[in-house]
Model the fold of this input.
Amino acid sequence: MKKFKLFTTILVAAFVFILSACGTSKTSGGEESKDKTLRVVTDAAYAPFEYQDKGEVVGFDIDFINAVAKQAGYKVKVEHVGWDPLFVEIKGKTADIGISSITINDKRKQTYDFSVPYFLSTNKIMIPKDSPIKSAEDLKDKVVAVQNGTTGQEAVEKLLGAENKNLKKFKDNNLAIMELKGGGADAVVADNTVIEEYVKNNPKENFVIIEDEAAFDKEFYGLLFPKGSKLKADFDKAIKEVMENGEYAKIYKKWFKVDPDLTEVKT
Ligand code: ARG
Done:
């Protein structure tokens, strides 16, 4: 009889232990855990959004993701992995969030989830001051440098044709700009803010920017998540909150020196 009592006590104790273990694993194991530091990946060669300064990854996007994560109650660590690898990591779920001036589009939505939009952008053309190029149409018989796998590449492919040898594709946008500087290309097509900042900060290089609204669509940046990520809901909410509580405007002003027009990104 005594033996039986001991046996049931052990059984009950084991049962209680298993039950409590089940309860805690829900809050400490999943990607939704707020104790775990989320891995955020970027391509830090796209100033002023993400770039490296004395070995540190900085930029508008970095301040933005830090503010949003804090608002949502998550810890994050941003790592520079490069443009193509960042998509591989999010798809393979070795990273939790991608932030890299990533345009929300239907093609990417088939494989990834996006947050609500947080920045309005469009592709523009950067050329030397004395260039004869006046519009996107004029790029047709010119050598154009773009970052591989971007909406800029896609837009230029529409103009020149995908197999065109005059389209030079680079791993990052700084390399595309270097090609233009070295005379190996006639133009760079990239996100307006990035090339506008470049022209402003490098007046001696004598580049100018041209806009062509008919050729280049309006685009919106979003955070990139693995498909089905449970983080999306929390981060969407936090993005809206930092836009409402003035935090977004503070970061925007730090990087762009002017107040944001929040109606641009409200959906
Ligand atoms: N917005 C463009 C796109 O999504 C270019 C982004 C490039 N970002 C970067 N960090 N290099 O295709």
The longest strand covers residues 119-128. DSSP finds nine helices and 14 strands in the chain.
